[in-house]
Amino acid sequence: MFSKFLKLLKGIIKNYPKKHLLSILTGLVLLVSISFISKANFNSQPAQIDISLEIPLDSLKEEDVQERIEFLINKEAVIKNNDSLYSILKRLGIHENNIFQIINSENSRLLSKIKVDKKIELSINQNNEIVSLNYIKDFKSGVQAQKKEGTYQIKEYQLKTEKFKVFKKVKINDSLYIDGLKQGLPDSVIMDLVYIFGWDIDFNLDIRQGDSYSLIYEEVFVNGEKVIDGDILIAEFSNLGKKHIAIRYKLKSGDSEYFSPNGRNVKKAFLRSPLKFNYISSRYNLKRKHPIFHQIKAHTGVDYAAGKGTPVRATGDGTIVHSSVKGGYGNLVEIKHTEDYSTRYAHLDRISPRITLGKKVRQADIIGYVGRTGTATGYHLHYEFRVNGKHTNPLKVKLPNAKPINSSEKEKYDLHSKIILDELKNYQNLTL
Ligand SMILES: [Zn+2]
Q1: Average of pLDDT values for 194-214?
Q2: 397 C-alpha to center of ligand 1: Å?
Q3: Which of 144, 148, 281, 284 is the most buried (most CB within 10 A)?
Q4: What's the pLDDT score for residue 69?
Q5: How remote is the CA of residue 413 from the centroid of ligand 1, in Å?
Q6: pLDDT of amino acid 287
């Protein structure tokens, strides 16, 4: 009797216009299952119930439901080197005609300057047609293309952000990092803190139990959701009884830097070392026996052992005054920083293409890669630090600070510094 009923049901599905079938069938299936359950209970044979339920529902799903709800599929791609809008959409399986529809729409130039590593999100309908496209510049802005009657409306958007200040005070028992995490500080904020104070404090050696720090940083919200932990606005670090204070300030140039309350730059003019190294293979030594020449030959720099190809960074802002092979130095880059200071980077495997004579570089720009050109026994960077043309031990030299706040901006800075310092003090007193 049951199989007869199934046949009948299939017959109905075939002949009846599918649009209206869903409601009827749902009702029917319900009816069948109810009658079956009661029967099954009576006969103690419940095993077949599921089968009767599945067949009619499955045959319905595909077309019928889609006519009422438009199914959108989301796809996304990260922009790669040499990508164009065309190549990305092609990769995402979009038909050429659809791509040209977008490219030929008004304002499509907004989508021509897409940047590597940014994301493009698509919503596609069942005809594989783009309904909307979103180029995400950052957490708060981008370009959106929306399908409207055969063409696309393309415009830039800017989401409204809200910033909230967060104060934290941390006493160090284990380590700067662990105790920070315990107080709920985000990873990225702790890293910023290490960067800001890393110029003055050696976090491996100088931290003692009882040291403490407090800070105000920002949290950024979009549509009521936190999107990023923002910048540290002010931080105070008490280390070995000495207080270090750093205040973030946006300069006229648009860059933001950290200064002490009286306007001294917390950064040094030079990085401690020009690369991430494995170990120091040879120190500055004016009486060293040279490993290749086996005679007393002063070692006028520091050798940092590091893998082939490790990026080498300019330790300070300056101008390239040498950028080619020079005898035993191999591939050598020399940077003149001020009248007094210059640095040399030797044995490079290769020099970055943009590092040419006369070019300006900024601190931490990559100038080349570790190699063993010239007279070198293994892969390492030979780094020299010269003051007034004389070799100086880069590990010992007292590094000058980066530029203090410009006198033309000093007055405004002083005001800002006073306000934010007061704010920090208020918070500190509240949590005593
Ligand atoms: Zn050396």
Answers
A1: 84
A2: 17
A3: 284
A4: 61
A5: 43
A6: 65
Average pLDDT over residues 9-30: 42
Give the SS3 label for residue 183. coil
Measured between alpha carbons, how far is 41 from 35 in angstroms, rounded to an integer? 10
Question: Is 380 in a helix, a strand, or coil?
Answer: strand
- pLDDT value of residue 325: 97
The 10s digit of each residue's pLDDT in 29-58 is 444 333 333 333 333 333 333 333 333 444
Please list, in sequence order, all residues whose beta carbon lies within 8 angstroms of the beta carbon of residue 4, skipping any fewer than 6 positions away. none
Please give the Cα distance from 364 to 41 (Å, whole number): 78
Position 350 scores a pLDDT of 97
* Cβ–Cβ < 8 Å for 312, 367: yes
Domains of the chain from N-terminus onward: 68-158 (3.10.450.350), 160-268+401-432 (3.10.450.350), 279-392 (2.70.70.10)
Ligand 1 centroid – CA 344 distance (Å): 11
C-alpha 346 to ligand 1 mean position (Å)? 8
373 CA from centroid of ligand 1 (Å): 12
Q: Say how many Å lie between the CA of residue 230 and the centre of ligand 1.
A: 41
Whether 155 contacts 183, CB under 8 Å: no
Question: Given CA atoms 348, 354, 357, 361 in this order, what sign does their dihedral have?
Answer: negative
Angle, helices 2-15 vs 49-66, to 10°: value is 10
Ligand 1 is a single-atom ion; what residues have CB below 5 A from it? 303, 382
Tell me the mean pLDDT in the region 168-180. 92
